[in-house]
What we know:
Distance between the termini: 52 Å
Mean pLDDT: 92
Number of helices: 10
Amino acid sequence: MTFMDLEDPRYAYMFGFLQADGHLAQGAGQKGRLTVEISVRDISILHEFRQLTPYNSSITERTRSTNFAKIYRSATWTLCSLEARTVINALGIPYGRKSKLIKPPRTEFSRPDYLRGLIDADGSLGWLSDGIPYLSLTSSSTAIAAYLCHYGNRVTGTERSISRNKRDGVYTVTYYKEQAQRLAEHFYYPGCLALDHKKANASAIGTWVRPPEMKFAPPRRRWTAGEDRELLRLGDPAAAAVSLGRTEQSCFMRLWRLRTGQTPMPPE
């Protein structure tokens, strides 16, 4: 077993979790530490990390007050080894503030396990108030949000676009209904390393059945550069609708956005 071999599903998961919820701090000289603090209910995952790490590390618990709870019990895993920190840093976890800097590894890695680690740390899956299942990931990193969209498209056939939330500047990528079920089943397979409550949620949303009265929304058809050029050449939504096999209203709105600069002009 090679420490942090990201083709190993356990290390791929661990690395994704550390990228999202871990913190590398650099001290004087060669001193420093990697820490992960999570709710004490999830302490078992820290013991898994400790077992996977062939260097001395420790797990401690504490109770404190937070903005969300008067009494919050947490568990912290601490790893100080310079050799281990060097490996983790080289793979893509920078020292200090990292939320906008992290990105998928540049080496080969187990993709579903890596993404499950990110979702366990910074994501959510379960039920909306109206009983609709969902799976989501919140991240400040453009590379991470874009990668989930890319991978999610491969698994579900559903495209997602990203934009930062105006309130706090983060991305939230969310899948609903059957797409959420497919991703949950794909990420949380039997025997995988994961937080127990999220593994249970993944199993639970897999039981959802679409009500007979709930219609399927057809996949959104994105405009291509070639279609944009043809639309501009014709300059007539009605003629473009016939030529492109789209609705006249869709052609009208697209032409308006192109002409007003709300949508970039297609390359020549």
